[in-house]
Amino acid sequence: MKKRKLGRGVAVIGAGMTKFGMYKNKDSKDLFAEAFNETIASVDKGFDPNEIEALYLGNFSNDFFVHQSHWAPLISDLIGLSPKPATRTEGACASSALAFREGVFAIASGFYDIVLVGGVEEMSKTSTEEVAEGLALATVPYEGRVGFTFPGVFGVIATAYFAKYGASHRDLMNVTIKSHNNAPLNPKAQIPFTIREMMNTKIERAKGKGRPAPQWKDEIEFLSDLSANPPVAWPMHLYDCCPISDGASCMILAAEEIAGNFTDKPLNVIGIGQGSGRGFHSAKSLTSFEATQNAAKEAYGMSGIKPEDIQFSEVHDCFSIAEIIHTEDLGFFKKGEGYKAVRDGLTRLDGPMPVNTSGGLKSKGHPVGATGTSQLVEVWKQLRNEAGERQVKKKNLRIGAAHNLGGTGGTCTFTILERR
Amino acid sequence: MEKKIFSDIEYNEYLNKKKLMGSKCKKCGSLFTPPRPICIDCYGTDMEWIEMKGTGKLAAFTCISIGPPFMIKEGFDRKHPYCVGVVELDEGTKVDARIEGIDPGKPETIKVGMPLAVKYLHREKKGEKLTYLAFEPA
Question: Residue B17: which domain range?
Answer without folding.
Answer: 8-51
